[in-house]
Amino acid sequence: MTTGSPEGPSPQWKDIHQSVLSSLDALNSATTWISTAATAGIEPIFERVLQQICEPRGVTPEAYIDVITRDAGMRRDVQKRLSRMMENPKLQALRRDAQRREAEHQLHVLHYILTAQPPPEWVWSAIDEEQREQLQDAAESGEERNDVLLPRVRAALNKLGTNPSAYGRCEDCQGAIPLERLQLVPWAECCAACQRKREGVPDDAPEPEVRVTHF
Ligand SMILES: [Zn+2]
Description:
With 215 residues, the chain is mainly alpha-helical. It folds into two domains: 11-87, no CATH class; 96-199, Four Helix Bundle (Hemerythrin (Met), subunit A) (Up-down Bundle), CATH 1.20.120. It is 62% helix and 0% strand. It has helices at 11-28, 34-40, 43-54, 61-69, 72-86, 89-115, 121-124, 129-141, 149-162, 179-184, 192-199. Helix 1 packs across helix 3, helix 2 packs parallel to helix 6 (89-115) and helix 6 packs across helix 8 (129-141). The protein is elongated. Bound molecules: zinc ion (ZN). This is Zinc finger DksA/TraR C4-type domain-containing protein. Residues 167-199 form the Zinc finger DksA/TraR C4-type domain. Pfam families: zf-dskA_traR (PF01258).
C-alpha cells in the first residue's frame, strides 16, 4: 500500500486510522489497560492497538506512524485520545501511588546511608546483592553523614508514613511538586520556586544541590 498522494493519505490509511481511533475510544471507556499503563506507561498499550489493527491488514505500525506524522489532523486525532487516556483519574491515582512508593524506597535507602540504621525489609529485599554491599560500605564508613539532609529525609519519610497525600505537595504554595524534581530531590518540602524564596536566592539562580554520592 502506498503511504498516500500529495492530496493526503489513501482511503486505506484513512480506514486504518478510523479503526485506531475507535479502538482508543473503546479503551478509554474501559479500565483493563490502566494497571499496565500505571507501571509501563501508555506506549505499550498504543503499540498493541496498532499491531492488532495493522497486522491483519498487511501493514506495519511504523508505516502508520509515518502516515500520521505527515498529517497534522490525523496526528492530532491520536494525540487527543492518548492525552485523554493519560488524564484518566484512576491512572493518575495509581501513578501517584507508584511514585510515592518509589520515593519512599529511595528515602529509606538514603536514611540507611546517613545513619547506618537498616532499612525496612521490603526496601532491603528490592536491592540487588552488589548494590547492598555498596550501600553497606557507604553506611558503615559514616562518610555520608549529613546533618542538614538527615532531618529533611526523616521529615519526608514521616510525611509518607502519616499523611501520604501531602507528600509531593509544596508546603508553601500547595502546588504539586514536579515529578522530575521529586526524583532528584525526594526529600523536597517545596517546589523549586518556593525553595528559592525560603533560601533567599534570586529566581534565576540554580537551587543549591545537596550532593549524595551513593544515590
Ligand atoms: Zn511552592
